[in-house]
């Protein structure tokens, strides 16, 4: 059975381990049971394959969407997983992992207000009018005045909302399947402009909300018009909007009673916005903002989603995607281990901290504790030297635990107060099926710590002893949110804890714009402490990699629209301040909208070269930056607009 582990991603491996535990010990003896296991053991996965799909289907894989390029999304019974994975045509089976959000003076700082002007409620100049800004995020507050036209009547600027987390009720419509990424079924609920206008008038069954508040803030930064006092105006205040809610869904979309893999949802979200702009709104130019990502992937730009984006936007005209770089710097999340010739060993202490005084969130519109498993991932090149890893639990509990050899059966058990650890060591190969560039081969050792049934983690120091018999470079990343892992001081100088190689998925894709953050409220305009730095990691793939990030924009204490449904609700406020590359990305998104109004047929190469070639000059007292920190430099919307071909 051990050969199957090299074909499962870490998400599916965790589910299958849970299934095996329940099968062996009984459900009552397992502290936390995955919902797919509890529901009977059927799970939706993404399949990458070679050869005849029908042969794999004959083993139990049930195709839902044939995504093309040697890929399909479908369901499997966990009882059939071993024999399906053992088929030589199966290259990879993935469950994936849901991404995280990458959480005044910013508009004047980038000179966006010099591209347009305002007199009362009337804007003049280039304001993004006629351009569509797509937001894939946590949803939107349609009632916020910043997202309506100047009135009366106060009409919405939102053309469409697709909420995949809603199940259709009487009178609801769903997206036309042709608007999604692959032939097959549709899901969720779609609201067109007429239904949004009806909801603004108190009519109809409008159920979409943004309780996280993140998506409303992002939309406002890119395209809000500041209507009330016109103090907080976005970059492109007359652009129209298409919204897809992909994070903090009320209910995660399912097919056959089990969750759709996030990579399928992500491809559908991108395709939906592009197809609506093209097929419904007469091929209007569109720029999509993605202010979310993963901080524990391989960081090389070659995940399946990144390969999809690289291909999707190559050569496109009037279609651009902007991605936040991530917020992983300044918090000891990455270590580079350089084993010398002859190898060696190093102890790396990783502190799991959870000092939250309030564990309750409201992001899904109801109070809940969102505490999840936390992971530590070690990536290294495949085909040569292999590492071995031992784990020492906090307070010396249990003695060092030896992890599996490469491709071996994962090691898992409970500890503490019914928390659980699992250790996995497998191939993390990626067929670049969208761009046909071959296969990227890397190895992954993963440590996952799962909280108990009360959602409590075992805080303390987890020490990893990492060994290699010969020269080898290993990259370690640990996961954080409001709680999580922080790397301590390694026992040897061969391990370097550093703020490099942090640009996460999907920021490593080529043909998209990846945005770092700086502080526009400080005179020196310093790069934000949290802003993820480059470069991308090279696992000896032999393939060209883009330099990331591409550019920096304001991302510290950015004031923009506050969703009425977000917490806290202490008093009526239209504005809230947020920080993160989530906030810097929509500054670039809005700037691209201005550029597309001037020339709707811009290619990504034209957009990229114009933005990078026209950044703010570095003069005293402004801090100089490196390419790994800020790409080409700090965004200047006016210069970029003036030089748009």
Question: Concise description?
Answer:
The chain has 645 residues and is an alpha+beta fold. 18% of the residues lie in helices and 28% in strands.
Structural class: alpha+beta
Mean pLDDT: 92
Low-confidence stretches: none
Provide the CATH architecture of the largest domain. Answer: 3-Layer(aba) Sandwich
How widely separated are the two ends?
58 Å
Write down the Rg.
24 Å
Query: How would you write the strand order of the largest sheet?
Result: 10-9-11-8-14-16-33-34
How many E strands?
36
CATH T-level fold name of the largest domain: Rossmann fold
* CATH domain class name of the largest domain: Alpha Beta
Count of the domains: 3
Residues in β-strands, percent: 25-35%
**What share of residues is helical?**
10-25%
The coarse overall form would be: globular
Summarize the main sheet.
8 strands, mixed
| SS summary, helix count | 13
CATH-assigned homologous superfamily of the largest domain: Peptidase S8/S53 domain
Labels describing this entry:
645 residues, Jelly Rolls, eight-stranded mixed beta sheet, 36 strands, Rossmann fold, Alpha-Beta Plaits
How is the topology of this model organized?
Blueprint: H1 10-25, H2 35-38, E1 42-49, H3 53-57, E2 62-68, E3 71-77, H4 81-86, E4 90-94, E5 100-101, H5 106-109, E6 116-119, E7 122-125, E8 132-137, E9 158-163, E10 189-192, H6 193-200, H7 214-223, E11 240-245, E12 254-255, E13 258-259, H8 262-280, E14 286-290, E15 292-293, H9 304-312, E16 319-324, E17 334-339, E18 344-353, E19 360-361, E20 368-369, E21 374-381, E22 388-392, E23 401-402, E24 411-415, E25 419-427, E26 430-431, E27 439-440, E28 442-450, E29 460-468, E30 472-478, E31 484-487, E32 495-497, E33 513-518, E34 551-554, E35 558-561, E36 575-578, H10 581-598, H11 604-612, H12 627-630, H13 637-642
Parallel strand pairs: 8-11, 8-14, 9-11, 14-16, 16-33, 33-34
Antiparallel strand pairs: 1-3, 1-4, 2-3, 5-15, 6-7, 9-10, 12-13, 17-30, 17-32, 18-29, 18-31, 19-20, 21-28, 21-30, 22-23, 22-29, 24-25, 25-28, 26-27, 35-36
Helix pairs in contact: 7-10
